[in-house]
Amino acid sequence: MQPVTEALIRKSFINASRSQVAAMNFPPDFAETDWENVDQIGWQDHKMPQRSYLVVPVDNKPVAILLRAPELVSASRKALCALCEDLVSEDDVYLFVAPKAGASGKNGNSVGTLIHSTFSCSRNVRAEVKPTVIHPDPELVVAERIRGLQERTLQFVQKVRS
Ligand SMILES: [Zn+2]
After folding, report:
1. Residue 147 — φ and ψ, nearest 5°?
2. Which residues form the Elongation factor G-binding protein C-terminal treble-clef zinc-finger domain (predicted)?
3. Who is most buried in 10, 131, 134, 139, counting CB within 10 A?
């Protein structure tokens, strides 16, 4: 994705109040983000661990989404991440809840989805693939996985917006 600044991300939230945006914290390693190799970025707020954020490029502009992490982390390790659908990663998968954008969110409506707690999805879909008889070209498989991640993430953004 195109590199985005902290200031731009703060302006890009569609489902957070001004005070929530003002209070958010960026990860300490934000400046080292490998923009070329990510389709989206997400992180848990290290000062408010019940909040996480997901930033997704939509038509080359970032859309930022506030996510509430579950208070109780249950044994959801085997749950399938709805964004990357990766079966290999050992990272936990949480049920995140995003308040809906606009009036609907103010009325308490939200969208839940399963996402890797570490937002490792971009890395997961780029993981090395062994060629098989059915898929002899690993590069094609990875390209298809990246496309799938991008599509499913956009669908999630649409659900938060709708
Ligand atoms: Zn994932």
Report:
1. -60, -40
2. 9-160
3. 10
CA–centroid distance, residue 116 to ligand 1 (Å) = 4
Cite the DSSP H helix spans in the chain: 6-11, 18-23, 102-106, 121-125, 138-161
The series of mean pLDDT values per 10 residues for the chain, 162 residues long, is 97 97 97 96 95 96 92 63 93 92 95 93 94 89 96 98 93
| Ligand 1 centroid, distance to 66 Cα (angstroms) | 17
Q: Break the chain into its structural domains and give their ranges.
A: 6-161
Instruction: Give the three-state DSSP class for 114.
Output: strand
Q: Where do the DSSP E strands lie in 2-120?
A: 41-44, 51-58, 61-68, 93-99, 110-116
Q: Name residues whose C-beta falls within 8 Å of residue 47's C-beta, 6 or more positions apart in sequence.
A: 25
Which amino acid is it at 98? A
Residue 70 Cα to ligand 1 middle (Å)? 16
Tokens representing 8 are 């731009």
Q: Which of 66, 59, 46, 56 is nearest to 4 (CA)?
A: 56
